[in-house]
Design a protein that fits this description.
This protein is an alpha/beta fold. It has one domain. Helices cover 36% and strands 18% of the residues. It has 13 helices and eleven strands. The strands form two sheets. Strands 3-2-1-4-6-5 form a six-stranded mixed beta sheet. The radius of gyration is 19 Å and the shape is globular. The termini are far apart.
Length: 347
């Protein structure tokens, strides 16, 4: 029976779920800053219930399925979209990935939404962030949850997942048990900390859009300002999330419900407002099977179990995780993929 671990690297916390024979044996959460400061201690904690046969997650924007030990620095900078020498934020997660691989952990990097061949090519044009690898993992948990709850086959599941994270809001469309579309946090609606998709004119006026800018301009930024009525940021947050759902119903018209996950989704007031905004669609809080590990960690554990030949291998097959291909830069036309590589110091 496989012993596996799933990791969800969040802006606020890094969460871990471990399975042994399909049963939960690790369910923990650490502040992200603490893990980045002590990767050796974190690596040891992943093996405290026995050496895992496979660890999945910690994949940034994703790569076609591969072992971290087999990835180059070029590969990791492409997965995390971090320039050489970048230490904080997403760059810190890249360094953590390398540290875990160097510690001998069998870490597998997972794809993001844009790598999947279940997403039609035309939906990928000029997109990079259609949903990072951890959002794809949360979708895997959603497929498992709906199938079990409704007594259905995984191929019969259909929903829109709203990931309301501590920084970003993202959404993924699932139909026939497969991810068919996605709106990533940096290309989607306003988030709790992040502005989401930038108006092109705002980007022009900013002059330079760095990583730090992607993590500001959201609800917390609006709330700290005295230029708007109280609650305007929260209203924008709820309405933006509802609009993202409506947009993805074009791609998944058979969606049975909306599942909400992520740190902010744990607030009943948020779920109530979303249910009122969506009206005709049931809104369900995707809690999963763990008490501490977020949905992305749980989904990563399910995918790791399936990849290791465990009881969840059918979800891996239906989602076509092994068939993922390409890079996050392949579908750019506003700038060329080569120009994007130069910006990442990869040319």
């Amino acid at each position: 029976m496989p012993r596996v671990v799933g990791i969800d690297p969040g802006t606020v916390s890094i969460d871990v779920c471990g399975l042994a024979g399909g049963k939960l044996v690790i369910d923990r959460s650490w502040p992200t800053a603490d893990v980045l400061a002590d990767p050796t201690g974190f690596a040891a904690a992943l093996s405290e219930h026995g050496a895992p046969g496979l660890v999945a997650g910690l994949s940034g924007y994703g790569l076609p399925l591969r072992r971290a030990a087999e990835t180059s620095d070029h590969d990791l900078r492409l997965a995390f979209l971090a320039r050489k020498g970048e230490q904080g934020g997403i760059g810190g997660l890249r360094l953590l990935t390398r540290a875990l691989a160097d510690a001998g952990l069998p870490l597998a990097l997972l794809p993001g939404v844009i790598h999947l061949d279940t997403v039609p090519e035309h939906r990928k044009i000029n997109r990079i962030d259609m949903g990072t690898a951890d959002k794809l993992c949360a979708a895997a948990l959603g497929i498992h949850d709906q199938a079990v709850r409704l007594g259905a086959h995984a191929r019969d599941t259909a929903f829109v997942l709203l990931e309301l994270g501590g920084a970003f809001t993202a959404a993924i469309a699932v139909q026939a048990g497969q991810v068919v579309d996605g709106i990533g946090g940096s290309s989607g609606p306003i988030g709790w900390q992040a502005a989401g998709a930038l108006d092109g004119e705002v980007a022009y006026l900013a002059g330079t859009v760095d990583k730090a800018m992607l993590f500001q301009g959201g609800v917390t930024t609006v709330a700290a300002s005295d230029r708007h009525a109280a609650g305007a940021g929260f209203d924008a947050f709820i309405e933006g999330a509802a609009k993202a759902v409506r947009q993805l119903l074009v791609s998944a018209p058979l969606a049975r419900e909306v599942m909400v996950s992520g740190r902010i989704a744990s607030d009943p007031a948020v779920r109530e407002r979303l249910a009122a905004a969506l009206g005709d669609l049931p809104v369900r809080h995707l809690t999963g099977f763990a008490s501490h590990g977020k949905q992305g960690a749980q989904g990563a554990a399910l995918l790791a179990d399936g990849l290791a030949g465990g009881t969840h291998r059918e979800i891996v097959d239906i989602m076509r995780i092994r068939e993922a291909s390409g890079t996050v830069l392949d579908h750019l036309y506003v700038i060329t993929p080569d120009a994007a590589r130069r910006a990442l110091d990869l040319a």
